[in-house]
C-alpha cells in the first residue's frame, strides 16, 4: 500500500509590469495637429504675405483660401478618424457615446460656421467679410472642439491648445484685415508645431500598467 504525497496549495505570485503603450481610448493627435498646422502656416501665411497695399508676394487671390480649406478639410477628417479609433478601444459605454458625439460635433460645428458666415455676408451685402470671418471663425470652432475633447479625454495638452486657438483667433480680429493673418500664422501655426512635439512626448512617456498573475503548482 502506497501513500501519495499531498498536493501543495496553489500559490500565486503577482507580477506587475509597466509597458509603454497607449491606454484604451487614447488618441494620437499628431496627424490632426500636422494637418491643421500646415493649413495655418500655408493658408494664413500665403494670405499674410499677399495682403495689404504693398504685399510681399503677388499671389492669386484664390490660393490662400484654397490652401486653408484643404488643410482644414484634411484636419477635420483626421480628427474624426482619431475619434473613431478611440471608440474602437474604449470599454466604457459612456466613453464610447462621448467619442461618437464629439466626432459628430466636428461636422456640426463647421456646417454651423458656414451658415453663419454665409448669412452674415448675404444680409450685410459685404462678401469681403468672408476673408476675415472664415480664418477667425474656423479657429474659434476648432479651439472650442479641442476644449471639449480635452476635457472629456482628460488631455491637458489638447485642452490648452484649444484655449489658445480660441482666444488668439478671436483676438486677431482686433488687428485688422491684414494683421489678423500674421497673428493666425505665427500664433496658430507655432502652437500646432509645439503641440505636435509635446504630443509625441506625451504618448511615449505615458506608461500603462498591466497586472499579470502567475501560478505555480508544486507536487510533494
Task: Give a quick rundown of the structure.
The protein has helices at residues 30-50, 62-89, 93-124, 130-153, 156-171, 176-205; strands at residues 11-20, 207-216. With 220 residues, the protein is mainly α.
Share of helical residues? 55-70%
Q: From N to C, what is the helix and strand string?
A: EHHHHHHE
How far apart the termini lie comes to: 18 Å
Structural class: mainly alpha
Order of adjacent strands in the largest pleated sheet: 1-2
What integer value in Å does the Rg equal? Answer: 25 Å
Count, helices: 6
Give the CA-based shape.
globular
Q: Assess the beta-strand content as a share of residues.
A: 5-15%
Number of distinct beta strands: 2
Q: Average pLDDT, to the nearest integer?
A: 78
Major sheet attributes: 2 strands, antiparallel
**Low-pLDDT sequence parts:** 10-22, 208-220
